[in-house]
Amino acid sequence: MATCSAPGKIYLFGEHAVVYGESAIACAVELRTRVCAKRSDSVRISSDIGTTGIDFEIHPYVSKVIEKLGSMKVSVEISSDLPVGSGLGSSAAVTIATLAAINIEFGLGYDHEEIARMGHEIEKEVQGAASPTDTFVSTFGGVVQIPSRKRLSMVECGVVIGNTNKGATPKKTAKLVKHVAMLRDEYPDVIDPIIRTIGSFAERGELLVRDRDYISLGRLMNVNHGLLDALGVGTSELSSLVYAARNTGAFGAKITGAGGGGCMVALTDSPDRVASAIEAAGGQAIVTAFTKEGVRQE
Ligand code: MEV
Fold first, then answer.
1. 72 alpha carbon to ligand 1 midpoint, in Å?
2. Phi, psi of 248 (to 5 degrees)
3. Is residue 86 in contact with ligand 1, taking CB distance under 6 Å?
4. Does CATH number 3.40.50.1220 belong to domain 155-288?
5. Would you identify the CATH topology of the domain 2-151?
6. Ligand 1 centre from 257 Cα, in Å?
7. Domain ranges of the chain
8. Peptide bond preceding 147 in cis form (omega within 30 of 0)
9. pLDDT tens-place string over residues 228-260
């Protein structure tokens, strides 16, 4: 029996722009998906949403992992701190933790690079399109600039996530990515500069992270939120949580992930106060921490 866990992530900067080759900064957070894999006489996949065999509707990521690794007979048990499909990389975390646990249980000998690469392929097969951000950060942890894969210093302030609990799903991500592509086709002179500006935050962000200048980092996160709103991926619920966090003194707050619902993230030195404000504004607050650790054996 082998148990592995892999973290979720937030974007400090750059979601959507990363789809167009711009830079982003993503950070692993200490919210993990744990997967226990055990040799068995049939395939059994068990999670909060039920127990199945290979099932591409109910457990698409784990089913794809098993298929990719050779359709072995394995029992997989999943538990997770991550809300599903809400912009925190839950599908990457379950994919990477399953790849790693089966890799150990069956002695397949893949290294982290191969696990990250296979994880990205699986996300693309299930979702139709996906950047390598989530699977890379879930495998290696830390604060990472994408696409350069440069590891930055750790962000050493509090982080609070606010979940709107409103419908973000992997399918919704594809819809939102298409919406931005449609806007860009129609108004390239308006949308391209917005995308490039979002990309520029990751360059500046690298220096601000190094200098631990969380005030400036937060200010740019606020601007990034405004530009995501301009791209049409914001919602009134997300903005309510973002403003609640800012109004209680967060350094900055923005959408994290594809938007259209799902989660926002705030940087702060008063996580409990910001969490209470997010809850009072109707969100579900998760106080967490950044983590250097990617996928690991438990
Ligand atoms: C979704 O979490 C982030 C997007 O940039 C899509 C992607 O990078 O695959 C919207």
1. 31
2. -100, 15
3. no
4. no
5. Ribosomal Protein S5; domain 2 (3.30.230)
6. 6
7. 2-151, 155-288
8. yes
9. 999 999 999 999 999 999 999 999 999 999 999
